[in-house]
């Protein structure tokens, strides 16, 4: 019955139904515990629900809402600005659920901790990088002292960028890299464009 209520978004009924046996909901039936915890969150009992979701995630992966539970926990800790815990749960994602959005969020979490190297590494996992990702990645390469990769990434961005202002910004950064690398001729050519 709780499955029916849960699938139809009737979370108060799930809580009422499973609440009668809440003390007996354990990790031995992770699906029931997941439905109960998620329903608690949906009806506003966020603290208790998140506590149960965290218990589930830390002890088993064998339930259908595993990735959704990781999302809930990461979002909650991100709102609280507890980026260490956010990253802890982000790193538990199954490989098949890691996509560009995942890596961008993980990169932001690392940046919020001040770890530019890990932020850069997260973005490097994205296979089809759009211009926004390329620009951020190029900047992170530069900020972490990886000038060869910064140069390469800025060149990729210049080739792909349609917006003239963003293209000029990338060319200016590339020219600066050439300048500090004492490649005067290349620097002048980039500044001239």
How would you explain this protein's 3D organization?
This protein is 73% helix and 0% strand. With 193 residues, it is mainly alpha-helical. Helix 7 (100-113) runs antiparallel to helix 8 (116-124), helix 9 (131-143) runs antiparallel to helix 10 (147-160) and helix 11 runs antiparallel to helix 12. The model has no long low-confidence stretch (mean pLDDT 87).
Distinctive features:
193 residues, 12 helices, elongated
Compile the SSE list and pairings.
Blueprint: H1 2-7, H2 11-19, H3 30-42, H4 46-59, H5 66-79, H6 83-90, H7 100-113, H8 116-124, H9 131-143, H10 147-160, H11 164-180, H12 184-192
Helix pairs in contact: 2-3, 3-4, 4-5, 5-6, 6-7, 7-8, 8-9, 9-10, 10-11, 11-12
Radius of gyration, whole Å: 23 Å
Q: Total strand count, please?
A: 0
Biggest sheet details: none
Portion in beta strands = under 5%
- Overall residue-averaged pLDDT value: 87
Report, as a whole number of angstroms, the end-to-end distance: 68 Å
**SS-derived structural category:** mainly alpha
What's the total helix number?
12
User: Which percent bin holds the helix content?
Assistant: over 70%
Shape field: elongated
H/E topology pattern: HHHHHHHHHHHH
Give the uncertain stretches in residue-range form.
none
Briefly, what is this?
It contains twelve helices and no strands. The mean pLDDT is 87. The longest helix is centred in the C-terminal third of the chain and has 17 residues.
